[in-house]
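Example S7 (structure tokens).
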């Protein structure tokens, strides 16, 4: 607990209030979410009229693109809600459709959700590239090599983070 020093108390109040400097960043995430929705709608509007002339591989690629955008939007929502609640202030929203995870995702859970989303997005991008192998455009082996390597790095990072969390939780419970 803080001493009775008024300078120290003022400093601590200022430090605590500085968390509100993050609020504009979360507002920026709302704008990025709007941008993702606009791109999603643009892609739907572009591909839907072509639906009858598309082959199944093209439809799958479009679906993967839409899934990719949706996962990115989910990632923004997770960071927006969890980050705001963990670092700025509790969301005082009482609604029947409030997601069950809101208010329950701590920093460790947020970190795992982030890496899982990044791995999924990377995997979808890689799958889209693999599906385009038969196209007229020649495959760039160096590009494919780096895409696979980066994806495997994301996967390994996720596994290592999960292991670190598991070891931390295990050491915490053994100290009790």
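Recovered sequence:
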């Amino acid at each position: 607990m803080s001493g009775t020093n008024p300078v120290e108390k003022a400093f601590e109040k200022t430090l605590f209030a500085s968390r509100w400097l993050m609020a504009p960043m979360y507002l920026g995430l709302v704008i990025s979410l709007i941008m993702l929705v606009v791109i999603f709608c643009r892609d739907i509007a572009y591909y839907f009229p072509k639906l009858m002339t598309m082959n199944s591989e093209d439809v799958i690629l479009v679906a993967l693109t839409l899934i990719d955008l949706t996962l990115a939007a989910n990632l923004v929502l997770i960071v927006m809600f969890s980050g705001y609640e963990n670092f700025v202030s509790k969301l005082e929203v009482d609604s029947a459709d409030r997601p069950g995870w809101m208010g329950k995702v701590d920093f460790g859970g947020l970190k795992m959700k982030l890496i899982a989303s990044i791995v999924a997005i990377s995997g979808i991008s890689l799958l889209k590239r693999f599906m385009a192998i038969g196209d007229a455009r020649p495959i760039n082996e160096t590009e494919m090599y780096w895409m696979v390597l980066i994806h495997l790095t994301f996967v390994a990072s996720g596994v290592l983070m999960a292991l670190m969390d598991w070891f931390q939780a295990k050491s915490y419970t053994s100290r009790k």
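Notes on this example. The mean pLDDT is 85.
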